[in-house]
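Example record

Each entry pairs one chain with its bound ligand, FE2/S2 (inorganic) cluster.
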Amino acid sequence: MNENQPPTKRWVRVTCTEAIPLREGRAVQIAGHEVAIFNLGSHFLAIENKCPHRGGPLADGIVSGGTVVCPLHAWKIDLSTGKTINQPSAPPCVKTFATQVENGVLSLEIPVAASATIHFPQDCLATISQGPYLTRSASSEV
Ligand code: FES
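Structure tokens for the complex follow.
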């Protein structure tokens, strides 16, 4: 495998859906990305966990409809588009990540180096606080 290849998008299993309470966010680190995942009841949405204002932790914000309000200075971010809503002159937006749920396990589509191997621990409830185990070894793939 070529270590110099640019990251490609891969589906990465992250956690059991029960690990993210209804209408709350949780942060996870995956392959160098800090991601905030939100449970909206009928579906999950994921965005970069860094407010475009001054980098506030969006996973700790208040979920309101399909938006999250940053806990630091109350900028409101649309969870589907990543765009700021209440700041017309704000920088463009935060990154968004596609999500899917299969058999109660939430996955994210995220850029990961082609040479990386992501280990999925047996106790998936632990992954939300610790993040998946990302290494460059060749042992058990996702
Ligand atoms: S850091 Fe988020 S509104 Fe200021």
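The mean pLDDT is 82.
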